[in-house]
Amino acid sequence: MSKSGSEVLKQEDVVLAVLIADSFSIRFAPVTDSKPKALLPLVNRPMIDYALESLLLSGVQKTFVYCVAHADQIRQYLKESKWMRSVSPMSIEVISQSPDDCRSLGDSLRDIDGKSLIRGDFILMSADVISNVQLIPILEEHREKRKTDKGIVMTHIFKKSFPGHRSRSAEEELVLAINPTNGRILNYQQTTNLKKLSFPLEMFKEHGLVDLRYDLVDTHISICSPVVLPLFSDNFDYQTWGDFVRGILINEEILNNTIYYHQLEGSYAAHVSNVPMYDAVSKDVIQRWAFPLVPDLNRSDTTPRHTLSRHNVYKQPGVTLAKESVLERDVAVGENSKIGERTFVTQSVIGSRCTIGNDVYINNAYIWDNVNIKNNCRIEVALIADGAVLNEGVEIGRGCVIGPGVVLAAGTKIPDNTRLMAHPPKCDNDFETSDEEEGNASLNPYVVKPFSADSVAYVYQRPVEEDSDAESLIDELWGLDIDEDSESEEDEDEDEADNDEEEEHEEEVDVGDLPEDMNARSFYNEVLESLQRGYEEKIKGDNLVLEINSSKYAYNVTMKEVNMLVIKAMLSLPSVMTKAATGTNEDWVALRPILQHFLPVMRNYLKNNQSMLDSLEALEEFGVHNSHFVKSICKVLHFLYGEDVLSEDAILEWYTNPPNDPSALKTIRKTVEPFITWLEEAEEESSEESD
């Protein structure tokens, strides 16, 4: 018997979207310490509004909004907005998870899979994406491809943008190898900080035509088959979209899964991944590249529409302009804001209820709500968050981020690329302090002083474990003028210096017979880099194991190669970090604390007899090719044996099966004879005592 009313719609027929309302990064810190990135204003409108508007205009009928950091704020905002009303044409369901239990995109999708919310195709998108793309035709294209390719798991959307364009994020540079006949992705590589790329020869042999594309930008929008969620659940190495793509491409022959790309034509999509991209996308919105997602067509009932004037100047109701004040071009001003006499504003956004004094210069700045800027201030290429106060004569350097509630005393000058927050940073001080130090800030190095007298401002320091060279460079480049000629000359000098250093280093450290496979060599280089950073920053072993496992999966190396290359990388570290090897007891003095620190890593990989034999083979190869290490090998074996990393049985089995290399017999085997003799005698004494 049929149900009353219209026929119940199957979930497969409903157009679904998953909106990830967390970036799992600290790119916008300290402003995101107290507010989720999805609710940060972009041209006086929360970012999540743009994403939801985009999905609505595409014909999406139901959206799951997945929140992690500050989930309660997002839930409350949506509850009070038009999106959660019964008359809304798109239904919204908010899913939240604790930051302790969800640290990545992969964790989010595994959680969604565990809740069994989705059974059909769905659109996956980040809440910090600004897009006017019509997604339904791409969804239909994805379904059509599945008729001929049952293994299709995803169609990922890219847009064309040449290197150097402001819409390209320097931290998301990539190269794709694509089959041009069907749009299938054959190889995916992130190229940030890479000088060389390698591609498998088999790819060119198997495919008659291969396009290598460096002119594509990831939009962070995907059309996903339902199998995507179980694939994430089955593999905890999938933390990011890049991890997922590399894993699918590596195992394509086994699982028969494929990923396709779609290139946008005439549409706009951009990911607000960091502050420079926030600047670029804000300008695109003001200059109407994202139409109809523009300020004067804002459909939100919580923020009034802007009126558009010449030269892309937008104003909300209640804006007051004093005499001789100038809004030059590409400017948006929020409701009830006041701008003083002779103040000049260009290519900037001013939020609601802001007070700008007289003779203020504002260029390429983003000023959020309730900011008070007194007379004679100068702001150029900066972001100033809610409730900040700049007293008279304050000058903000280029690339600065001023956190919410910061108060700067009169005449304060902020250097370029400084980030300030209103409260002292948390100090990870594991040492106890005396009562005298507690009361005297000059004696206690852990008491953080304000940026300047009479200011409520403290310098924000990005946590070491979250920092990266690429990210720091991106922050420093925001708003800086770069001389391309001098930059080119500097790059050439750096390349020459790097080459000289690499040649010198190659003479000092020879890790032995690295596999001919380029993937294994790349794996070794990544492991060496991870271990060096892990030792210098004292990263926990569990986290390093996750990094190494991720590299193992990315380069598809065998466990034997993992066991050997990890050991060789550890043995190389003293020479890598000091650029010197003496062949004396100093080598062991340098190596011992390194091995001590990496004991959890070694115990993770050397769990059985075969893995121990692999590590002993690596020790021997390293010793054959590095004469300075020979004098330390007995101490290394004794140390690893004493720490239960290597078993007695494994060591004796290795020693009784000599290699074919005669040089190893003359050097390594002869050197370790005293230790083997001691080991055998200790075994005999133990047997006699037991009898």
Task: Explain how this protein is built.
The protein has 691 residues and is an alpha/beta fold. It has three domains: 11-275, Spore Coat Polysaccharide Biosynthesis Protein SpsA, Chain A (Alpha-Beta Complex), CATH 3.90.550; 305-459, Hexapeptide repeat proteins (UDP N-Acetylglucosamine Acyltransferase, domain 1); 506-690, Alpha Horseshoe (Serine Threonine Protein Phosphatase 5, Tetratricopeptide repeat). Helix content is 38%, strand content 18%. It contains 22 helices and 31 strands. Strands 13, 14, 16, 17, 19, 20, 22, 24, 26, 27, 29, 30 and 31 form a 13-stranded mixed β-sheet that branches. The protein has a seven-stranded mixed β-sheet with strand order 3-2-1-4-10-6-11, sandwiched between helices. A six-stranded parallel β-sheet has the order 15-18-21-23-25-28, with no helix packed on it. Helix 3 (105-114) crosses helix 6 and helix 18 (609-625) crosses helix 22. Residues 1-11, 428-446, 464-473, 482-491 and 501-508 have low confidence and may be disordered.
Brief summary of the model shown:
It is built from 22 helices and 31 strands.
Task: Set down the secondary structure blueprint.
Elements lengths: L15 E5 L26 H11 L4 E6 L3 H10 L10 E6 L8 H10 L7 E5 L2 E3 L4 H13 L3 E9 L13 E6 L4 E7 L10 H6 L4 E3 L2 E9 L3 H7 L6 H10 L1 H4 L2 E6 L5 E3 L3 H12 L20 E3 L3 E3 L4 E2 L4 E2 L3 E3 L4 E2 L4 E3 L2 E2 L4 E2 L4 E7 L4 E2 L4 E7 L4 E2 L4 E2 L3 E3 L4 E2 L4 E2 L4 E3 L13 H5 L18 E2 L9 H9 L6 H25 L9 H19 L4 H15 L3 H20 L6 H13 L1 H7 L3 H17 L1 H4 L2 H10 L5 H8 L6 H29 L1
Parallel strand pairs: 1-2, 1-4, 2-3, 6-11, 14-17, 15-18, 16-19, 17-20, 18-21, 19-22, 20-22, 21-23, 22-24, 23-25, 24-26, 24-27, 25-28, 26-29, 27-30
Antiparallel strand pairs: 4-10, 5-12, 6-10, 7-8, 7-9, 13-14, 30-31
Helix pairs in contact: 3-6, 7-14, 13-14, 13-15, 14-17, 15-16, 15-18, 18-21, 18-22, 20-22, 21-22
Protein name: Translation initiation factor eIF2B subunit epsilon
Pfam families: LbH_EIF2B (PF25084), NTP_transferase (PF00483), W2 (PF02020)
GO molecular function, one term: transferase activity
